[in-house]
Amino acid sequence: MIERFNFKKLDLQGAYLIRPFYSTDERGGFIKDFNIEVFYKHGITHELKEVFYTISKKGVIRAIHFQLGRQQAKLVRCVSGHIYDVIVDLRPKSETFGQWRGFDLSSENRNEILVPEYFGHGYLVLEDSVVSYKCAEVFYSEGDSGIMYNDPDINIFWPFEKIGGVEEIIISDKDQNLMSFQDYNNLIQKWDSKRGEYGESKYNN
Ligand SMILES: Cc1cn([C@H]2C[C@H](O)[C@@H](COP(=O)(O)OP(=O)(O)O[C@H]3O[C@@H](C)C(=O)[C@@H](O)[C@H]3O)O2)c(=O)[nH]c1=O
């Protein structure tokens, strides 16, 4: 069995749901989740700069993260287990600013999400999981930032019932003290006046 790469443009402009190349035979399976030429053909021209993996127990929530400065587009896939993955459009000039979309990513469905620059990203772990990231920018610790997973303005519907309720979440200290969407809006205003247009150029910090 051979399944070719498949790219689905999402309604948050610049984001994609991608099914990797997959083939199976009597030995097992073969998955290719990135190929520069195929991605280029579909208009995704990010340079791959960094790859990392996170390992999480059921109930872990990592959200909603982004880098302030040195924007980092990333290709995210759950290589083992099952997560509920969420992207949030944080481009102030976008028609879908502040909107979120959620996706089941699992080793079974093999789906991956292309998270564009200026998006927030996070996930809830529904089964013990390993998640892979292929990033178009390196990690920039000074710019490491995020918005609270339960921000009332963004209002993400996390499937907490699948982990036994919200009281079961496992969350880092950092993620319990992230900014609100309102704070983010205020921050953007400051950037606008100090550094020019947000959303159209990469910052060099
Ligand atoms: C993300 C990252 C973290 N680190 C370090 C910082 C810290 O000491 C340790 C763990 O970092 P964190 O707690 O921020 O890891 P984590 O909460 O898994 O952060 C990740 O969450 C998801 C949702 C994303 O989208 C990623 O881009 C990233 O922000 O690893 C790096 O050295 N390089 C990296 O690229």
Question: What descriptors fit this protein?
Answer:
12 strands, 205 residues, three-stranded antiparallel β-sheet, globular, mainly beta, nine-stranded antiparallel β-sheet, 10% helix, disordered C terminus, binds dtdp-4-keto-L-rhamnose, single chain, Jelly Rolls
Short description:
The protein is mainly beta.
CATH architecture: Sandwich
Distinct ligands, ions and cofactors found in the model: dtdp-4-keto-L-rhamnose
> Nearest-angstrom radius of gyration?
17 Å
Task: Characterize the overall form.
Answer: globular
CATH class: Mainly Beta
**N-end to C-end Cα span:** 48 Å
Q: Give the rounded overall mean pLDDT.
A: 93
DSSP helix count? 2
Provide the β-strand percentage band.
35-45%
Structural class assignment: mainly beta
Low-confidence stretches: 196-205
- What is the CATH homology-level superfamily? Jelly Rolls
Main β-sheet, in a few words? 9 strands, antiparallel
| SSE pattern, N- to C-terminal | EEEEEHEEEEEEEH
Report on the structure:
The strands form 2 sheets. Strands 2, 3, 6, 7, 8, 9, 10, 11 and 12 form a 9-stranded antiparallel beta sheet that branches. A 3-stranded antiparallel beta sheet has the order 1-4-5, with no helix packed on it. It is globular, with a radius of gyration of 17 Å. The longest helix has 15 residues. The protein has a single domain, classed as Jelly Rolls (Sandwich). The protein starts with a strand and ends in a 10-residue tail after the last helix. The C terminus is likely disordered. The protein is built from 2 helices and 12 strands, in the order E-E-E-E-E-H-E-E-E-E-E-E-E-H. The protein is mainly beta and 205 residues long. The structure holds dtdp-4-keto-L-rhamnose. The site of dtdp-4-keto-L-rhamnose has 10 residues, from strand 6, strand 7 and strand 11.
